[in-house]
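We treat protein structure as text, and this decision shapes the records that our systems exchange. Because each token names a local backbone shape, the row as a whole describes the fold. An entry from our holdings is shown next, in its original layout:
>
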Amino acid sequence: VHFPDTERAEWLNKTVKQMWPFICQFIEKLFRETIEPAVRGANNHLSTFSFTKIDIGHQPLRINGVKVYTENVDKRQIILDLQISFVGNCEIDLEIKRYFCRAGVKSIQIHGTMRVILEPLIGDMPLIGALSLFFLRKPLLEINWTGLTNLLDVPGLNGLSDTIILDIISNYLVLPNRITVPLVSEVQLAQLRFPVPKGVLRIHFIEAQDLEGKDTYLKGIVKGKSDPYGIIRVGNQIFQSKVIKENLNPKWNEVYEALVYEHPGQELEIELFDEDPDKDDFLGSLMIDLIEVEKERLLDEWFTLDEVSKGKLHLKLEWLTLMPTAENLDKVLTSIRADKDQANDGLSSALLILYLDSARNLPSGKKINSNPNPLVLLSVGHKAQESKIRYKTNEPVWEENFTFFVHNPKRQDLEVEVRDEQHQCSLGNFKLPLSQLLESEDLTMHQRFHLSNSGPNSTINMKIALRVLSLEKQARSPDHQHSAQVKRPSLSKDARKPSFKPQVPVSPPADSNKPVPASPVIDSDKKTDMAEKSQHPNASPQWPTDLSRSSSSLHASNFTYSPSHLSVKEPTPSIASDISLPIATQELRQRLRQLENGTTLGQSPLGQIQLTIRHSSQRNKLIVVVHSCRNLIAFSEEGSDPYVRMYLLPDKRRSGRRKTHVSKKTLNPVFDQIFDFSVSLPEVQRRTLDVAVKNSGGFLSKDKGLLGKLLIPLASEELAKGWTQWYDLTEDGTKPHGAS
């Protein structure tokens, strides 16, 4: 294949070959000095983890082609795209002594397009201030393991699989994660440390027409309809629409908002599938160059689907510019109807960009004279994110980026809490009304903020900026028939079919009055729950973020994260959990309606759960006994495979999750399992116990899902004595009341 703008660069391959032994030395240091301590600190079970051998092999990385961008780039930067291939016979051996576990890697293959940005260009040697490296889209990654089954038996890793691990690794390589290497000491790295997106793409995923009918009857003699849904990708942000049953002209009317960091190069990719019990059929695809959308500002068109014989898709795309002034804010709030409602979510009027630098003089936490393991919880409205943990320090340096979509900055607050991960206690907090940013110069604040409920001189250093999302419509004459440039796919349909059914959370539908943007599935800052594949919007980073938590203390590689870049940081496409996105609740309501079918279901349609709850002041723990459930609903013809999952809110980390065993094929399971949470009595009375009864199903099975929920506020004076009670399960956990 000949790409006219991509050039061969054999001189570069000869240079890399000469440098390869030294590159290998750097990689070995990275493994030993950064990755090894990060893995050890990520989980108590991994405290004896070590690399026994690291040999990257003699075969150097190859650069198959180089493209240099000369248009649509800043004059102070150089953008290169390198098509790289690495096929290495590595020997990387690791060991977890505590579990007598040995495993390793025999070979690694990686193929993809790496973007290298040289910026800022400066008038002194070495002319380039810094370079940034990242992949625009997920590279093809293959790892040949030895002893992987031993590794996955270790507690803390048993929710993983080889495909999940590959997803974790490859997504750490994709934008917005980037490695920034400063080349001069005094360079102004502010813009590199504070990456402001080029724009926000608002995608109205409206409807399709004339799709192919994939469902057949009577062994294919009768053509049926399809159950279409769409998967939308921008970089590593992934959204999935709801499924419209048996309709070749589906109307979704959903809205998504995605950050665009890089163009040229980033595209809007859409694939339509027909949902099937086994493997979903492909209904067509579309790729749209975002440069065209930016030029037009607003596109409302029907696009013909590629790779299929028929079908077209109606999209409305808005390119929103990030404005550093608030003069258009009232107009924007009116346009998204945020000026009248009191909600904290809906379409976004602004973007909050936050650089978390460091904290000073933090208190010692629960133990006097001991250094805490601080992390920061950040939240705006219902959306929350969590920083990495810094171990054993009261002067932590994070150097992390976060972004939040904001519905109405006049009414919403940024809440910041520093917590000690080791003792699960607060080290200080503060609340910043976003209206203060509206009064600041350039809508930006860069200062040390004093922490309340903390030490006398405890401060946290952050740079916070608000950017108003403005759609600058261009007047077009009626006869102007511009159409966005649609890229033709280079992969065949078969080569690109998903290896398993993507099950990402479905967005809330956008009604005509107030469209609600769906949360993207890929967010680096959200925690993954491997075993359940459930996700909560306020969840904080879990595995694999744990793995990388200290890895970005390596100053040369400043990985940056963005909240709206969800989930293919999630190793597997996650089924939306109970509260998070409405899909689980919607499914449950649908199932209830089917069960009801004109009859009255009675007082407790989802069944009940019996719990004993008490606080032991002697052990300083909340004790919860899960006794049994009765009259659960059947998930399939064979009944249900229930288990109980608990969190002590607001803690949704993996370490805070408690799970019973799975009881097979029963609607009246008996568990009789005791669980505890380390928490003081005054603290626990401010917390809520989140209990979900779930259906287990097989790995990646469709029969996973919610059987019922329960939220129990623990602000009771009876907690020290304790109680045993039957509770009604509900669809979303609200209004729990004791049955007996």
About this structure: The radius of gyration is 26 Å. The CA atoms of residues 307 and 493 lie 7 Å apart. The chain has four domains: 10-184, 199-213+225-323, 350-471, 604-729. The domain at 604-729 is CATH 2.60.40.150 (Immunoglobulin-like).
